[in-house]
Amino acid sequence: MNDQPPEIAPIGEDARIDALDKRLKALRELENQRTQPKAGAETDANYRLGNRVLAELIGGLAGGAFIGWVIDQFAGTSPGGLLVMLFMGIAVAFRNIIRLSSRRPE
After folding, report:
1. Considering the domain boundaries, does residue 80 fall inside one?
2. Residue 21 within a domain
3. Among 73, 74, 89, 106, whose CB has the most other CB atoms within 10 angstroms?
4. pLDDT, tens digit only, all 106 positions of the chain
5. Which of 64, 53, 63, 57 has the alpha carbon at shortest distance from 103?
């Protein structure tokens, strides 16, 4: 019998550990790619801002026209109430758009 302990290979020389190390590096790279912010994040923010501006404009016009029409139906002031409230809706929409555009980016 041989009383000498078996030789233990250094950590860097075992093929299984090398393969595991390569797999870990590849998985870390995949995770870094997956968690990095997308290049289009700024484009998405600009797209959302544009949609919000459009919604404010359409909402102001439609809301003002509807309220003016309702006032005209009950007060019998056709088309005065509609025109006044339509211009008020336009003014409110532009005020909201100016407030949106003057905000600092987040």
Report:
1. yes
2. no
3. 89
4. 556 666 665 555 678 888 889 999 999 999 888 888 766 666 788 888 899 999 999 999 999 999 999 999 999 988 999 999 999 999 999 999 999 989 876 6
5. 53
Q: Which amino acid is at 10?
A: P
Q: Is residue 94 part of a domain?
A: yes
| Residue 62: domain span | 41-101
> Could you tell me if residue 13 is inside a domain?
no
d(CA 33, CA 11): 29
Domain count along the chain: 1
SS3 content of the chain, % helix, strand, coil (to 5): 75, 0, 25
